[in-house]
Give the backbone structure.
Amino acid sequence: MVSSDSTSLSVALPPSAPKRENITPVGSKIAELNESRTELLNRIQGLKQDLKNWRSKLDTQVKIYRDELSELKKTLNVEVEQLRTEFQELRNTLHQQHEDVTTSLKNLGLQDVSEGAKEAEDPKVEGKDEEMHTSSIKENDK
């Protein structure tokens, strides 16, 4: 029944019509969100791969540097050992030369003279030590 009262007249819309209008925009929004989600996941995968590659390159560089340092250390140790050997040879040579000079002096009969010279030099050495001590004190005072 329709009443003649204008205030009571209303057109009733089917309840499903507003839902259909809202469903279409929501569906397109879901599609956009899914597409955006896929793009973000792809970017994340790309960044993960970039990070993996960077780490791999970094690990390779670290290994190369460690190997180089190891080789340098070995080379340095060999050179140090060679220097030690050379210094020991020099010490031995000097010691041998000293013994040869002493033997030559004995053979020439200068051993007695050299012993007397050593006794005479002993006071000079003490005097030199005293001079050095005095000069170092003067330098410290400055």
Remarks:
- Helices lie at 16-108, 111-141.
- The chain is about 85% helix and 0% strand.
- Residues 1-6 have pLDDT under 50 and may be disordered.
- Residues 16-108 form the longest helix (93 residues).
